[in-house]
Amino acid sequence: xxxxxxxxHGEFQIFINTNSYKVAGPKISxxxxxxxxxxxxxxxxxxxxxxxxxxxxxVGTLTPGQSVDLENGMKFDAGKSNRS
Length: 84
Prior knowledge:
The protein contains 1 helix and 7 strands; from the N terminus they run E-E-E-H-E-E-E-E. It is mainly β. It has one domain: Ubiquitin-like (UB roll) (Roll), CATH 3.10.20. The strands form 2 sheets. The protein has a 5-stranded mixed beta sheet, with helices on one face. Strands 3-6 form a two-stranded antiparallel ribbon.
């Protein structure tokens, strides 16, 4: 009964900045993405970071406090913004 790629409370394989991680679902937050890839945020305004995600034809962005439903194989690009 489990659909491929859909595993609401199990483990998901995702990629953050090309690094592979296995994480528990069903969601992942902006803050969790940054922490998982060891992106240093201590003492820095989180608004200065970008998190974009892609899965198949679906794309989106996360801002501080937001989360997204996980899917196996999701790709995240995360890091300090280029904005000044």
